[in-house]
Each structure stands twice: as C-alpha cells, then as structure tokens.
Amino acid sequence: MPNSKTSRSINTGGIRPKDGDNEVPCDEKSFFESFYESTIEGSPSDRDTIGGSVTEPESRYHYNAVENAIILAMTRINPLPPPMAIRAWTQMTKNANRRLLDIGSGTGHWIDFFVDTYFVSEAVAVEITENMSAHLKDKYFAPDNVLVLNEDVASNVFTAELIGGKVDYITAIGVMFHITDDKRWEQAISNLSAVLNEGGIIFIGGEFGEKTQNVHFNNVDNFTDWRDFRSAEGTSGEVRVNKRVRSLDLWIEKTQHCDLKVVDLVRIYKDPSIAMPENDLLVLMKS
After folding, report:
1. Spatial distance between the Cα atoms of 231 and 2, rounded to a whole number of angstroms
2. Which of 6, 59, 193, 287 could disulfide-pair with 47, CB 3.0 to 4.6 Å?
3. pLDDT at residue number 22
4. Is 0.90 surpassed by the pTM of this model?
5. Do 207 and 10 contact (CB within 8 A), yes or no?
6. Are 69 and 281 in contact (CB under 8 A)?
7. Within 13 A of 257's CA, how many CA atoms are on the CB side?
C-alpha cells in the first residue's frame, strides 16, 4: 500500500480565508478561461499552464519530473525489454493501437509525450476552456489521430460514446484537485472509470497526503487581468476554493467503488529552491 505521508509543503495560494468565511467551490470553467486570457501572450507554453509564478527552468523541471514518474510507473507494471528485443517491443507497442484520453490538455504536452514515448495511435484531448480548446484544435488540425473536445469531465453526459470509444490510458495531471466540489469530483472519477478499458491505467498528478483540505482560494472566478484578480473583493464572507487536495485514503476509498485499484504512488522529489505545483503521481488500474 502506498505511503500517505509527504514532506512537501502545500501552496495555499494568494489569499487566506478569514474565520467564518464560507468556502465555496469555484467555477472551474470561468476561472481558467480568465486565467488563460490573463496569462497567455501569443502561442501558449507549458509554463503558461502553471502560471507566471514559475520560471521556464522550473516549468521544465516539473514536466520532466512527471514524465519520469510516468515512465517509472509504467515500467513497474510492464518491464521494458532487453536491448536485443527493443525493435520487436517498439513494433508490438505501435501495433497495439492503444488510445489515450488526456483531461485538462492545456498545450497538449501529455498527448505528445504518450505519442512519442508509448506510441499511442489515437488520443482524445478534453479541455474545459474554449480558448485552450481552440489552440488545441489549431495544433492538431493536420493529424487525424487526435480528437479535441471542449467538454467537462465531471459532467453527467461524459461517456465513452462522446469520446469515440473506450481508452487504454488516461492522464489527468494537475487537474483533479481543481474540481473542488466533492460530488463533481466523484462524478469525474466514475466517468473516467466508465470510459477505461479493463486493465487500463489512469495517471493522476497532484497531492495525496494524510488530509483532505482546501489549499488555494480566490475572491472571484471571473476577471479581465491579474490586476483585476488581485484587487477584486468578491462576495463578503465568502471565498472561492480553487484547489482541494484529497487524502490518499479518500482516493483509495472512492476509486474502489468505481472498480479502480491504486497500483502505485510515485513521490516526486522537490527541492525548496525550485517552485513546482503539487505533482506526485497516483496510478490507478481498471479491474
């Protein structure tokens, strides 16, 4: 069983709730529409998906760390071949015609990673925001193996039919903790399980410690720029919850109800000199 302890300190965001404040789940679509409009200048980058509080090297460190965690987890499940079998392994992997579902695709980083590293033949990019969906549709206009959908994974109409059939891999890196309403979070887990083939694998990037807690708050979900965001007063006596991390025990409990089993938890080393979002890797398999 994975260890629920973590030495990492959690980013509590820009504001802290006052005593007695009502903590209300944010509207993810509205917030991230505003987030991207306020952050991106020109073509979006991986760094833009994290925000302006990290440098390019820190963004690269984060993405590389999660890539390595996925490779480690995949290798623990399916060991890599010896040198004399690499060519056969590569061809067999390509011939398997595996499909990927990427939730909160942003720039499409995880689609590109799985296409290049694990040779998935088809991918579905699901992005809740219209602005990043438009970017993804432009990026993947020519390839006919990437379907881009402007959809909500926590919707009760998110089905295998919607995404063109079931998938073998699902990535949701830095996404699930932004679904701060618990009922919507549970619906999202159920939806992911429903579209996953038996034996399929889900990779969740986030924080999986001992406590379930709200850790990032805003005053408003809609804003025109970061100056507007910082000066907005919002509703008196209320804060918007932008990030809610769930305990490892809660993840295990809720995913078991959806025929998912935790098969690995890769803790990512974080040096205090490098700023990164929560990015440990929880690995689930459909039974």
Report:
1. 42
2. 59
3. 96
4. yes
5. yes
6. yes
7. 11
